[in-house]
Amino acid sequence: MRYQISGHQIDIGEALQSHVKTELGDAVGKYADRPTNAQVIFSKRAHEYLCEATVHLSTGLNAKASGRGTTAYTAFDDSREKMEKQLRRYKRRLKDHYKDRKEPVEVYGGASYILAASEDGAGDSEPDTLQPMIIAEMEAQIPSLSVGEAVMQMELAGAPVLVFHPEGKETLNVVYRREDGNIGWIDPREGG
């Protein structure tokens, strides 16, 4: 597994990098057969250290966890425990979904935009223009997954919504977490 370990405005020493590689490799290795790479970012907010870890699996899924602690080591350990819990919870589902998959998940490119929020925050006033202000434009990846795999990817990544291309269909679909805790699925009808 390839590791990218960095600090956001803090220095990361060799000892912490070695600890991350050993512990994360052991934790992920128990539950995922073929992790390809891991990205771990440390930062500090006031007196607290933050650690965000993302592990990319060869199946195309991503597991993401973040942790906090009074030291960088405790923040990483918190993040590692959360990731290990996620992967343990979904190990059976990962095996069921990917036992017949010979190729990794196919990914398509797309555009992702971040729009500026209203200045007053209330949203009650009439906008000056109907054209929203775009404050960021990025590349997005749209995976080709089954609905079950899309729900699992959304939960593993901790995302509220996931846009995906269903295998064998021409349209894009969306799965999202509803306010009642259930999962919603948007499947536009083709030709309708």
In short:
With 192 residues, the protein is an alpha+beta fold.
Protein traits:
5-stranded mixed β-sheet; 9 strands; single chain; alpha+beta; Double Stranded RNA Binding Domain; SHC Adaptor Protein; 192 residues
Descriptive overview:
The chain has 192 residues and is of the alpha+beta class. It has 2 domains: 97 residues, 2-Layer Sandwich (Double Stranded RNA Binding Domain); 80 residues, Sigma 54 modulation/S30EA ribosomal protein, C-terminal domain (SHC Adaptor Protein), CATH 3.30.505.50. 29% of the residues lie in helices and 38% in strands. It has 3 helices and 9 strands. Helix 1 runs parallel beside helix 2. The radius of gyration is 19 Å and the shape is globular. The chain starts with a strand and ends in a 6-residue tail after the last strand. Keywords: Coiled coil, Cytoplasm, Ribonucleoprotein, Ribosomal protein, Translation regulation. One of its GO terms (cellular component) is cytosolic small ribosomal subunit. Belongs to the HPF/YfiA ribosome-associated protein family. Long HPF subfamily.
